[in-house]
Design brief:
This protein is an all-beta fold. The chain is built from no helices and eleven strands.
Length: 122
């Protein structure tokens, strides 16, 4: 069983940065992982994913060039560096993991954290 705990969310102004962390219990070095977000009234949206082999995919339309996903397998931790934040980035951000599947579909992931709120507003 894998447990995921996100941290690092908060309230920032447009243009500012945040770094989210996802701490995983257990040995997740072989798991595919990802960040997703969900704004009120909207479906959960793919942000970025990183495979166990560090192959990275971004939601190009929304975040490419501003967000960077990374992982530290030795510490069982995944990160999302978010720069140049915009009001439309406001959402609850979730980390997800799966031992076999990967990709932008949230249904591919069996394990989820509780989420961390990111609010971007002036």
């Amino acid at each position: 069983q894998v447990q995921l705990v996100e941290s690092g969310g908060g309230f920032v102004q447009p243009g500012e940065s945040l770094r989210l962390s996802c701490a995983a219990s257990g040995r997740t070095w072989s798991y595919n992982m990802g960040w997703f977000r969900q704004a009120p009234g909207q479906e959960r949206e793919f942000v970025a994913t990183i495979t166990w082999g560090s192959r990275i995919t971004y939601n190009a339309d929304s975040v490419k060039g501003r967000f960077t996903i990374s992982r530290d397998n030795a510490k069982n931790t995944m990160f999302l560096q978010m720069n140049s934040l915009k009001p439309e980035d406001t959402a609850v951000y979730y980390c997800a993991a799966d031992s076999r599947r990967s990709g932008p579909d949230p249904r591919s992931y069996d394990y989820w954290g509780q989420g961390t709120q990111v609010t971007v507003s002036s």
